[in-house]
User: Which sequence fits this backbone?
């Protein structure tokens, strides 16, 4: 496999003390799996540059860590400057050399120009879900039935999702965070037990470990795939390791077969974080069915939407039964069984559980979303191809192509801004897109850059250079099947305008 200038070059491993991240000098070269570079590819950049006069200072804003929505602090009639606390520093090895940009002080401060006319008149909300008549009617029918708690629609959703995945057992819960937490509890974590977690993921992956009594041990990711690697897992294994949580990032499958093999050899549980990976396949098998548990998300931005919701998958009937109990206070029978037409049944508290059950109102949305999951994937592929074609020559790194034998769920389209070539930070591009009425997401700031994980576990900048490199460059674009062709045109136009200041 070769990697062209369209995709990020192979990044560093956190264990290499002399690792260097991709720089402008190697952009345009192809890189094979062994890191050997071939003759540089010609990269054409005839776009105009942005002059110092194009920038102006203004009030600071704080960018939402996941979604970029309009806020009262971001008035459209004024220019804005990003808050430097949201973007972090850059790696020393990645600083551009050659041309002195010291004169462009405004650009270096990250000030963003406000265009006279935005690309579109209405704000395009990032991750806005597609909600159609069938699920709306199903919600109304649920309300009319007066059974809005956990009941027959939850049971039906569990069954249909289980059949879609080819899983042995499924338990519906109220979030992917709940699914991760319950899986951790089922593993039987004890104080001091360690769980390996990628540094590039949402906070809930690590927080679930903490709430279950364990210690998250962060590991670096491959900056091309943004996924945890088998090599990193091997480096982090200790006598205290009880589990590993690989994240199928953005819908791209991680090296799950190799990860499971390492885990089995070391008697470590595997909990697959499938929040992005409903449609993800490896050799025809669904993500979430390789490890001991799978945790899925049906949050409002996900590929199947229930508003709030999640699912646990497992091959163990005993673990499925226990997770079902834990999700509803540790009761021996849920409300649907206690009050069904089979007659009243007393419950018993078997163990202290949680309030994590899904309701029929939420399942009513998911049932019809599941019916359209493959059609929606096809639409996201169409949008993905348009983005790839449109952004090929911009100062960005595109997502790597789908690996052979896999299906990418296409949950997130994550551009990596070539900040050295563009001479602007990612947040500058984000704010420029906001000014053009295009909502975006940042997935994610690396966990070790957040104060809690720094202060509690002693992590610091430089510990995970692959995750940091992604963290400072990643920008997710709208990808909902709800998007019209005109919406996609607007995203392309706005991204092109926001990145036209790059230097070749």
Assistant:
């Amino acid at each position: 496999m070769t990697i062209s200038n369209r995709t990020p070059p192979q990044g560093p491993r956190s264990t290499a003390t002399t690792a260097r991240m991709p720089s402008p000098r190697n952009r345009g070269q192809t890189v094979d799996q062994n890191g050997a570079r071939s003759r540089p590819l010609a990269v054409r950049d005839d776009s105009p540059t942005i002059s110092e006069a194009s920038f102006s200072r203004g009030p600071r804003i704080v960018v939402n860590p996941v979604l970029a929505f309009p806020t009262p602090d971001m008035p459209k009639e004024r220019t804005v400057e990003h808050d430097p606390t949201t973007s972090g520093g850059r790696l020393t090895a990645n600083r551009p050399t050659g041309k002195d940009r010291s004169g462009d002080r405004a650009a270096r401060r990250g000030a963003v120009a406000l265009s006279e006319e935005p690309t579109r008149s209405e704000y395009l909300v990032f991750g806005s879900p597609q909600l159609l008549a069938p699920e709306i009617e199903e919600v109304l029918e649920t309300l009319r039935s007066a059974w809005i708690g956990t009941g027959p629609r939850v049971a039906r959703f569990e069954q249909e999702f289980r059949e879609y995945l080819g899983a042995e057992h499924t338990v519906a819960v109220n979030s992917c965070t709940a699914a991760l937490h319950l899986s951790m509890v089922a593993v039987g974590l004890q104080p001091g037990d360690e769980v390996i977690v990628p540094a590039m993921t949402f906070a809930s992956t690590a927080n679930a470990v903490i709430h279950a009594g364990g210690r998250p041990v962060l590991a670096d990711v491959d900056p091309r795939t943004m996924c945890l690697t088998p090599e990193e897992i091997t480096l982090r294994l200790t006598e205290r390791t009880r589990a590993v949580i690989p994240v199928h990032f953005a819908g791209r499958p991680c090296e799950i077969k190799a990860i499971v093999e390492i885990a089995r050899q070391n008697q470590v549980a595997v909990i697959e974080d499938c929040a992005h990976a409903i449609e993800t396949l490896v050799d025809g098998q669904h993500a979430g069915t390789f490890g001991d548990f799978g945790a899925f998300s049906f949050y409002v931005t996900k590929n199947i939407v229930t508003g709030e919701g999640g699912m646990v998958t497992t091959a163990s009937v005993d673990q499925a039964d226990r997770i079902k109990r834990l999700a509803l206070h540790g009761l021996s029978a849920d409300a649907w069984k206690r009050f069904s037409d089979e007659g009243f049944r007393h419950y018993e508290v078997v163990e202290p559980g949680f309030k994590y059950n899904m309701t029929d109102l939420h399942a009513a949305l998911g049932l019809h979303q599941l019916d359209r999951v493959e059609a929606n994937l096809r639409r996201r592929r169409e949008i993905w191809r348009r983005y790839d074609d449109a952004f090929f020559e911009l100062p960005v790194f595109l997502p790597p192509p789908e690996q052979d034998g896999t299906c990418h769920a296409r949950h997130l389209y994550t551009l990596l801004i070539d900040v050295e070539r563009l001479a602007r930070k990612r947040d500058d591009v984000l704010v420029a897109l906001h000014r053009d009425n295009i909502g975006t997401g940042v997935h994610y700031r690396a966990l070790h850059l957040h104060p809690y994980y720094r202060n509690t576990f002693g992590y610091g900048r430089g510990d995970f250079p692959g995750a940091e490199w992604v963290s400072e460059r990643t920008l997710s674009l709208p990808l909902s099947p709800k998007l019209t062709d005109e919406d996609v045109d607007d995203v392309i136009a706005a991204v092109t305008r926001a990145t036209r200041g790059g230097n070749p």
Notes: The CA atoms of residues 365 and 462 lie 43 Å apart. Confidence is low (pLDDT under 50) at residues 1-5, 12-115. The first helix runs from residue 105 to 109. DSSP finds 16 helices and 18 strands in the chain.
